[in-house]
Amino acid sequence: MIKYCPLCNASSDKIHFIGEFCENCLIKDIKKIIKKEVKIEFCNRCNRLKVNGEYIENTKSNLNAAMFSALDIKRCKSVKINSIDEKFANINITYLIDDEYVKFDDIIRYKMIHQICQECYRKSSGYYEAIVQLRGNKQHIDTIVNKIQKFVESRGAFISKIETLDNGGLDLYLSDKSMMKTFFLIYKLNPKKSYTLYSIKNGKKVFRNTYFLKFEDPQ
């Protein structure tokens, strides 16, 4: 039995219907509730996008995720950017209506909001939670520094500063003290430990950790 859309009189033998209405009229109604302008935040130092409160790599798929989050459309399954320029994005939206998905394109104006993520802020401010003091044989020191650097950077942390001492030793200032505990455990190292009160946060004492390692010269 052929249906006729009560809004535009289109017939079901020429266009797909969902319930009593044609797909075109339903899409027009959906477009009325979609934001015509959105803001997308990114860090202007590392260029990562902010999606759901977290900074992630600026890739095409993650930009789709950022647009999806910014539009915040109920019953929307996905948002895909077809093309984008400095002000506008042509997007494809997949939307759920009465257990059926419809796809359609729309033009959205967007604005990139410059921020600085916590990691970049900490790097620029010299933030650190732990100091690793390395003394003794230079070859051993260079080896362990290389291992520490690869270890922390692969896990999203960083070395904020390296101080070279007159005796050839090094002091490494690191952003994550818990990560250093893991490092020493994995490499079966047993440094001397000490703690310095750094601040009090929410009524709790916050300490910076200092680890001391000395490598003897080979006999």
Structural notes for this entry:
This protein has 219 residues and is of the alpha+beta class. It has three domains: 1-32; 34-118, no CATH class; 126-215, no CATH class. Helix content is 26%, strand content 42%. The chain contains five helices and 13 strands. It has helices spanning 23-33, 60-71, 118-125, 138-153, 177-186, and strands at 17-18, 21-22, 37-43, 49-51, 54-56, 76-84, 88-97, 100-115, 130-136, 159-164, 170-174, 192-201, 204-215. Strands 10-11-9-13-12 form a five-stranded mixed sheet. A four-stranded mixed sheet has the order 3-8-7-6. Strand 12 and strand 13 form a beta hairpin. It is rod-shaped, with a radius of gyration of 28 Å. The mean pLDDT is 92.
Q: Strand share of the residues? A: 35-45%
Q: Round the mean pLDDT to the nearest integer and report it.
A: 92
Tell me, what's the shape? rod-shaped
Distance between the termini: 96 Å
Task: Summarize the biggest pleated sheet.
Answer: 5 strands, mixed
The class by helix and strand makeup works out as alpha+beta
- Strand order within the widest beta sheet: 10-11-9-13-12
- The number of domains is 3
Question: What brief labels describe this structure?
Answer:
single chain, 5-stranded mixed sheet, 219 residues, rod-shaped, 5 helices, alpha+beta, 4-stranded mixed sheet
SSE layout:
Elements: E1 17-18, E2 21-22, H1 23-33, E3 37-43, E4 49-51, E5 54-56, H2 60-71, E6 76-84, E7 88-97, E8 100-115, H3 118-125, E9 130-136, H4 138-153, E10 159-164, E11 170-174, H5 177-186, E12 192-201, E13 204-215
Parallel strand pairs: 3-8, 9-13
Antiparallel strand pairs: 1-2, 4-5, 6-7, 7-8, 9-11, 10-11, 12-13
